[in-house]
Structures
1.
Amino acid sequence: MKSDETISSLPLQRGPFLLNQRTLTITMLSIGVAACAAFVAQALIRIIGLITNLSFYGRWSTAFVSPADHHLGAWVIVVPIIGGLLVGIMARYGSMGIRGHGIPEAMVQILTNESRVPPILTLLKPLSAAISIGTGGPFGAEGPIIATGGALGSLIGQLLPTTADERKTLLAAGAAAGMAATFGSPVSAVLLAIELLLFEYRPRSFLPVALASTTATGIRMAFSSATPIFAMPHLTAPGSDALASYVFIGAVIGLFSVLVTRIIYDVEDAFEKLPIHWMWWPAIGAVAVGVVGYFYPRTFGVGYSNIDDILSGHIWGRALLMLCLMKFISWAVSLGSGTSGGTLAPIFTIGGGLGALFGAGFAHYAPHLGVDPRMAALVGMSALFAGASRALLASVVFAFETTMQPLGLLPLLGGCSAAYLISGFFMRNTIMTEKIVRRGIYVPMDYDVDILMRLRVSDIFTQKPLTLKGEQPLSAVREWLLKDGAKHRHQGYPVMDENNDLLGVVTHRDLMDLTTSPQNTLRQIIKRPPVTIHPQNTLREAADMMVQHEIGRLPVMDPHHARKVIGILTRSDLLRAHKRRLHEAHTTAKSLNLIPRTKK
């Protein structure tokens, strides 16, 4: 191997750009996906309206109406059952992926299938959800729209040459666009994508999602007004006593989030034990929807008007308690049966109702605290979702964006944080991840900076490495290895020329290969140009290079002299970086007496 050829191949590592041309490409694709998702959202809302009008009123109209004012009498019980049968048939002969509320299914595809959502879901998911909700299912339209937007983003990523990370970004962009197009909440949609779908916080992913969410919101504004979806009277700034009360309410709601999640999965487990095919489960669950809806019609459908009434204080007392109870029964049984629908609207309804009830109790028995039941409803609505999903920031910002009540931000932050704390203490998984974890899939919840990203090569590489000369005969090196090399046993050695410039790297296996003539020089047995690293590179870049080139060591080059070796970095060095992290954590925990001392 010629020295000039070897040196010319030495890569000068300068670290990755924060953003690049590929990021711009994915951003433009995300904007296109968002525009499509926004129009799909408008179409789905109209399809739900059409099915609702046909099922409950026998008229041809796409107006978004509540089924609560129907005049079907006891026959109304049959309507959800028909919808459940149709959803079961679509799941059996179309795709099982339409079952559930959308977000967990998207998470599974991201974690296990490189963000490849089956294309058929792009059609079947919104259609099945429209049938389920339009025939009285107690779900929100947002879940299917989020799932459909995500499926559309994944489909675009599969049709075009993209990486798994890029498909994940497109999927998250579509999902966020679906949420933004439903509620007009672009910031909380981005936060939801970060907290539940992206599993990272990096400009290459959240910037496309942010612009997608903005695009979808803009299109929504063209179809409807820019007013908040949940209009409520202006609130007054809470005092310190009221703020403490809202935090307490959030903590109590956190307990309810644990109870709600466990009941949901207990119902699902009960359906799993039924001795009939799962295709029939949605119809069986729909019996509960029909019966509950017959006695309490407000539980039918998406129920956005219920949330509006709760936040405005138009429903209270016994009526509010019954709404929370009946909505929960209908939703829990139906969702547990595996039908198609969303969870956000039911959670907001139940949480808002519970918060309003607690707030009314404070206002009646402790008026000096200054608790406003409407503010308590706002806190309860978001706190139940924060506790059930652990999407803390998305929950806080969502309540603000959908009501435009800035004075509610502080109570929301306190209440949702308290709910998250209580939920995390009593419940390992969430309403979004329990089903996934049961399948043996690990779902990351803590997003911290990798230790390899925090450290540079200069922090840990071995200086003044043991090197060999290119003109040394292989026989002499073997003799040295057998005699004295055991003291300095390495898996690889940089090979230098007469000017002490790097020629390449030879491994211990290369040196001891008996098929190679011992008369060869080390220069002659170098198999490929060296892959090098510079001190300013991160250990993450070094690890990626080792994996990419299938090598276990990297010569560290002088940044000012491209041919001069100043050290070597090995896989063992990378492990020492992790050992350093564990040592720091152990030392800190021990100093705080978090680790029991062993008895001598």
2.
Amino acid sequence: MYQLEEIAFRYLPRTLIEHWEKNPDIRPVWYQWLDGSLMHCDVTGFTAMSENLGEVGKEGAELMAGVLNQFFERMLAIAVSWGGIQIKFGGDAMLLYFPDENHAQRAAACGLEMQSVMREFNHVKVKNDYHNLRMRIGIHSGRFFVCSVGQVGTKIGQGEGLLHYYIVGKDVNKAADTEPMAEPGQVVVSTETYNHLSTGDCKMLSTEHENIWLVKKIAAKKHRLKYFDDTNLPHHILQRYLMRPIAEGLSSGKSEHRRTTIIFIYVTGIADLIEKKGEQIALSQINEYTNLIIATAEKYGGYFAASDASEHGDKLIVLFGAPVMQDKQESSAMYFALEVIEKMNSKKLNLKHQIGINTGYVFCGEIGSVARREYTVIGDSVNLSARLMAAANENEILVSDFTVSNCGNEFILEQLEPIMVKGKKKPIPISRLIGLNKQKVNNAETSETVFVGRDKELHTLLEMCDDVVKGGAKQYLLFGDAGIGKTRLAKELINKLKIKGWLYAFSSCKPYNQKSAYSAVSELLYFLIGLDYKNTNEENKTTLIDCFNEHCFDIVVFLPLIADLLNITMETNPIVRSLDNKMKREKREIAIIKLINSLSLKYPVCIFIDNLQWLDSSSRDVVELLVSYKEDKKILIGYAARNTDDVSYYFDNLDERIEVDNLNDNDSIKLVSYLSPELEESIVNSYVVKTKGNPMFLHELANSSNDMGDVIPDTIYDVIMTKLDKLDSESKHLLQTSSVIGRNFDANLLTKIM
């Protein structure tokens, strides 16, 4: 835990400390006006550096922190020499306040000196790469509304928690609006600041932007702020302005590259509230809204990290996964956003907001100088979250696809058209978060149709299983027409083997995945490792690591190759980075084979690949390796295909080839009678004759018996078209769209397609 005295002077702005020094006994909810000039500095280049160094892991984070702190140490020393006060860090940006007489002159002179020193950072070498850092500076003079709000109980010690210090209002927004008008390397000022400077010894030029002036030269005297006594400072209150993990030492505060879910909230209406309703009402509403953010973030394990000025409003930043790691951070972030929207709608506040959410690996840590620093996050993922916030409409939550992919089916989302954002060459896929999915799709297998007949085939397969248990891998192929029952037979075998303690894995190949590397194998691994598509990245990563540690510890070093295959984000290591593409492929396939073989030493393993004719080539290579040495492996591998021509390359190693044909009359009658017990015997017999014992055709006829007249359709297609024709146009379109996904599908996926 930090010393209380350190917190006051290192982690909080001087304006806040001075107010508490003068008023040590006041209630923590208060406001004041600051007169002077506000400088907004934005640095480009740190994001690219963060992404580059992120690949190096811990070393990269430390190098990043070193450059950042060197930069801020240099810049803040210049600011202090001109009487500037660091109010906010906006990642790699700075917000400086200049009080007292000649504040505009000192701010402009400070900006010019900082830009001069920026030449030292134009080509920064980090490891073997050079990075070009540039800075834009905008200055505006006026009156700035600052306030302290947060969790304050009605009695001392009751409900007291996090406090937050804002600088807001129209002049703060104007300062933020001035900075983007500058080109890298320039210092520009608003008309209000220009009016302060025009009477002195200075040189300024007009710009292409109306009411924006470029400062070229200015004469000003440096100014040191007065020292003040810290004897009366209420350090126990000042500590509450820091995020709890920082203040209580739960986070080391050290630099790291960490997977984090970042939420940007754009709040508008504060400036108008101050102007039209007055300071007290504005303070009350800012306090109520801030308490909503703090309480909801804490409820779901997140942290209200910072606020920052923007051109027309104010930005709030909430973090999940930093500074302290959190499971299910994406889901927690989305629960947070939904609850904030819901509760805000019930409050009578004159504020509006819009939200953006993104997840990714970012630089996290404390940045600044020895005298003044803050915990922050920097990286492309942070920027994307801010872009989503800016693209959102009022009361709208926009979420990146990466965040959505780690949330399972807990939420109702609407897939939107991809958007172009600054810094990205291609459109970004996004979704609108609508609400909670109250009818979640669970992980249970879909219920199977009744299983009848196939006694001979099932007996043959079970005999093979007995041989596998004794030692030695076996392979079989089921072939026959579409709808004949190949998949149903394989699943019946799996159901029986599960009872006996076998591990099993099922993969259904799709024609559109034939060119997707390891498509079938990745699906098999999800079963064997015990992963879950609904789980968060961290949960699946933990399961993956635990599985390899238990069954094949000696190849854990190659785990990032498997994680990449399974779309699980995992930091790589020097050994994996040193491999070329060919070696990566070989090591990945060896790791897969070793894992399955190791599992088979403990449990018999049953693998089934449906629609073998669409198996991708990479998965085929793995399967061929798996069966190349059959001895001492308790592995049963089954395949299904519609005909033997497309899968002839497997025939040399097959132990059984089983043709699955139509059901006999007795089994056909059993199936129809089970599905529609109310049908008359004559109708059942007519169905058996019409279908010739095809199980799918029988199934569709039995389930459609109430929709058909006296004429029995000739084909399965006719049955389905008869059903479709009875639907209204909207339902028909819905069914046709859902059929693209498959026989079983997630309702959320259908919603996105529609």
3.
Amino acid sequence: MLIELKVHLPSLILSRITWSHSMTKSAFFLLLYVSSILCDHEEWAVEIKRGSQTTAEELAERHGHELIGQVATLPNIFLFRKKRDTEHGVTHPHHHESPEIHWAEKQVAQKRYKRDLVVRDPLYPQQWHLHGVQAVPNVHINVERVWNELNITGNGVTLAIVDDGIEYTHPDLAANYKAGSSFDVNFNDSDPFPQFSNDDHGTSAGGVAAARDNAACGVGSAFRAGLAGIRLLSKETRDVDEATALTYMNQLNSIYSNSWGPVDDGKRKEGPGKTASLALKTGVREGRKKLGSIFIWAAGNGRRSGDNCNYDGWANSPYTVSIAAVDYQGMQAWYSEECSMLIASAPSSGTRFSITTTDLQGSRGTSTGDCTTTFGGTSAAAPLAAGVAALILEANPALDWREVQGVLIHSSSRTNPTDPGWKQNGRGLFYNHKYGFGLIDAYEAVKTARSWRPYGARILLDPVISLPNKDIPEGSFITDTVVINDQFVVEHVQVIFEATHGRRGDLVIILEHSNTESILAEKHSDRGRDYNWTFGSVVHWGENSGGPWTLKVKDDIPGETGTLTKWTLMLYGHKL
């Protein structure tokens, strides 16, 4: 059998090589490696200042580069590639010889990790996440009532799975697949079909969200929604690649389901670069006819490593909907990260049951058949929530991106209600850093969407900056308070935290308002020096913005010392 594979070779924009089973894997990947070296052209994302009279092509030529083209649909953002004969470091765009250039960022390929979790425990009734199991019948997303009583199935809404491709020929997926909304970012063509044997992640995620009814592997939570595949994770990605994926066909794709991110080891603070950050912001401003794209994000599987979704710049963005995972008992899954940016939780793998859904056909995937019973992690929780988002948008297509978050917040229910982490915020909403606002309830979400009262324009308070310059003590908190006079309803909160410290993972950081605490950081294994990181919180959703906001910081491990030099409070919301 011959498998045709796309490879970017220097002599062709897009060439193909053929791999036969007679070729050893080592020889094949050596060929891939050599080809990548040969075509290793330095590339830069460049933002040209608005109103510049110089064209992008002229600027590229001036700096010894060639213009590759505009990045996605981002205004004034272009990709330059250094010419082979350009002397290194002399005319690169980051030197800013040109007043027309706002910023330039070198593109570096990075490994992004799929947030799946293979569970080998015995599995029982299939698709318990949709309807429960006999022992604990209430731990599910309550979606059957949406289909049967409300006749809402995701019809007319297209969701995109940003992952390692989708096997759109799978009988469970074929009827819902939208070729015109799909793209292969990794190999720059319109076909996101998974080519490698480990490219099974997106197909399973797609099945959880939108597998068709009356098929072999069960159904998705929105089984009549359109399903697009955006292939991104089959190789290392650059910031511009991630930006392209998250803005692709954003007038046709309403929801982007993302089950990936930086490695979940608790040892880093990492997130999108400038271009992908702008893509998220552009998506919520311009996507879906200016109502805003819905970005669903897997919160991460690094709980046992002390990781926290607030250390992930994707999961803690105000523009994304971070989803945690609970097991079949409604308990925090052993891998599921907690943080103050969790919107809600969804069922996934854990101590006993995993998720049954689509797999690559035949023996190419995790199973020997066309279905898998071992899908899990927050990788499964996110597309399950994405399907619910499709149900919400079918019920009320006029909701903007913040209102979709609000619907999930106000309709989710307390799971594991005896857990001591449940606290009421100043608005009376229950929040838990393990579960967000609770377990997604699709039926309540659709009812809430149908009766939703619009938020109105988004308010952005001017950043409030404090320069305390206080030493951080070991074992006890220092505090610093700012007072806000403006009064509006809080949605998102961000804190840009700056401190000097020899081992930043030693610090505990808490934000307090209206007797509500957002735990921004806990003691963990990040040995990096110093802090300059943006934390986020939705814990204060619905509170009145006015009054004191207090930052509390302590050093939880003796040894290294540090100083809180600066913090910036940013509040977003809507009128009272």
